[in-house]
Amino acid sequence: MPFVNLIFAAGPILLLIFWMTKKQPVPSAKALPLAALVAYLIAFTWFSQDSQLIHASVISGLLVALTPILIVWSAVFFFHTMEETGAMATIRSWLNHLSGNRVAQVVIIAWSFQFLIEGASGFGTPAALAGPLLVGLGFPALRVAAACLILNTVPVSFGAVGTPVWFGFGQLGLTPVELREVAWKTSLIHTVAACIIPLFALRLLLDWQEIKKNSLFIYLAIGASVIPMFLFSLINSEFPSVVGGLIGLLTTVWLASRGVGLTKEKEILGEHPTTRAVTKALFPLWATVLILLITRIPQLGIRGYLSASEPAWHLPLGNLGDFAVSQSLVISLTDILGTQTSWDHPLLFVPSFIPFILVALLSIPVLGASWDIPLKVWRESTQRIRHPAYALLGALVLVKLLMMGDASSPVMIIGHHLSLIAGSSWPAFASYLGSLGSFFAGSSTISNLTFGPIQQDIAKELHLNQTTILALQSVGGAMGNMIAIHNIVAVSSVLNIANQEGAILRKTILPMLLYGLIAALTGGLIFAFG
To answer: What percent of the chain has pLDDT over 70?
Structure first.
């Protein structure tokens, strides 16, 4: 019976993987809602869940999907505005004159820039920002999507100002010392993986000869981000990726401008854009980064204001629940269908209207563009979001159904069976459990919240160092970012790639599996010497 429970628990996930990776894949807009329907039927028939709880979970999933849908739509609006105002053309020209070397361009945008954005924001924002820049430079969109997902892995554990660590493990009763141990061990594993995994992403966009000839620059750029991240993780779990990303980006741009570690390319023909023109064209990007940092750093106080959830106005909706809005425009629906299921959406904090729409509109006067552009871009962005919206609605309903039932939920059943199968070899598999959480939830934070307690219990049962096991969970949640359906759908929609989610997944699955192997080996050394 336990094995049959496992089959039914994992069934929707296995079907989803099959549908999306077979020779003629099912588009995510169909595959994800179908997988959610299978999970819905299994919840009713095999697990005999309460019908009110099932339907409350479905409603919650549909509402939660509004968050990634708004982020994706806003990101598309943002980049269409940059394209229409001419900012993208100027940036492309500047990058080409900064360094005509393709390796430098890919590393600056897909590694260093993404690193900083992940540290400040998370929410899938890095790939949404970096992807269009690379496509604009002439790199193929599908390969760009996969490369951006692979490269945006190392900083994820400390993304959104460290949320996956300090919040994701916040319910485990760890002391400040133990939390710092989790942080530096997580960072150490990522640092080792960063010596190998980025090469897989670079190979998607460049040939081996280019990579080999420019390897000094590549590793200087990698080190410029991961070394500060590791050093800062020894004292803090909030800012390692922000610090690593900022130092790394500034260092990498400086190295590229002086050709350090780069093969010399032919001189770029054409007029070099002026410093004033570049500064104006970069306004949407640097303004976005600045706003993200200001609104994410807790010490500045703005973050708390934008996410304050104390209701200022509420409307009872009968059995459907209690609808409320706070002064900070945090929209919520509690007690859905009379259950404890709830939903909230911090409208001003989630990176959609702020910063994407706000900065896009501010860019119009800054760049001296026509006010006809926003209406045109609005129509194009709304048209582009239709396909991914269906996929994201299906994905989030699937997630809610898989997490329903607390200790007896499908997710917990899968986790416990994996630990039973692995036994004393669990450290070799711990990171893969974390990646499973990110795969279906699209979030390292949710993966840590969901599987952190399981990992802690396994560590205690097997008498293993719990901070090392939790570090492997944290790394797993981050490496799962590259196979997360949520993220694949999001970056595909921003880059306007239709029905290729399965193809992207096939390109990212091998680097993810290798990442887990590196994590297991590094974790083993930490066990041996720590």
So the answer is: 98
